[in-house]
Amino acid sequence: MVKFIEHGLLVFSVTAICLANPANNTSDNRFVEIPVEGNRTQPADLEAKPQSELLDHIKKSADINKYLLYTRQNPDSPQMLKLDDEDSILSSNFDPNVPTAVIIHGWQSQPGYGLGPLLTKALLEKRSTNVILLDWRRLSALDYVSSVSAVPSVGRHVGEFLEYLSALTGAPYSSMHLIGHSLGAHIAGNAGRELGGQTARITGLDPAGPLWNFNSNRLKPSDAVYVEAIHTNGGGLGMIQKVADVDFFPNGGLQQPGCHTTVCNHGRSYELFAASVTNNNLIGRKCSSALQVALDSCKGSELPLGNDDLQKTGSGIYRLNTGRKYPYNA
């Protein structure tokens, strides 16, 4: 099982080493406990064989992905949008003149839990937005290795859907923001890649670590005009190394204040993001090295973590310290 070092100077060394050398990321041990919804973990054997026949069958299904639209006109009851179904989109509340945010859940999850309701509420209260929750539970409900194998197909389908949506309604890619947690972060990357990196922004919320350190399908800086990652459980269930244009490491990126479980640490990424959308209150300081991140000695320029700014730009690694509770001010 993956074990975490929570106190003492050794945690600084582990952070710096993992950031500098992804081969040292312990998330590629064979057996790990991966956080899922309901404040629990699910065991995963990283050397298990994917369920190839089942995956092939589901991937051919027309409803491999479901797209649930929430707007200020229907903040509580979603409207179903469908690829190659004009009426489902044109008769919905989708407005091509406002931003579109696509929220993507992780393994063993679904859109009605965790980040989905939290981010939907934050985004709709901030401004009029087309919030689309991706439902890929048919594949996320499989064993971890099979779900990892499905990520490229799921992401490609998301990209094809957004291409169709844009062509049908005129909604520009420059108004689109893909937001994914854990495996969902890598799905967002694959979706953006399908669109040639044209979407305005991708936010990866503690991108999944197990089986992703050397995986060419993982989230990359080229997947959108601006790609940001928020690392809250790095070096284990999340990735500690840089994967985006800007990588934020709240409290060093391994353990979060007030958290005593991996579920809490992993989920804190989307809680911080939700707070940043509402308050834009979490400010990172640029670091010149991984060691500065680990030692909390960053002295560079400031950049806000998260928020919903579609013109946001930046590069590098950033550290910030947060509080234990919402809105997480230090």
From TrEMBL:
Subcellular location: Secreted
InterPro entries in UniProt: AB_hydrolase_fold, Lipase, Lipase_N, TAG_lipase
Main location as per UniProt: secreted
UniProt domain Lipase: residue ranges: 53-292
Source superkingdom: Eukaryota
CDD domains attached to this UniProt entry: Pancreat_lipase_like (cd00707)
Record-stated family: Belongs to the AB hydrolase superfamily. Lipase family.
The name this protein goes by in its record: Lipase domain-containing protein
Organism annotation: Loxostege sticticalis
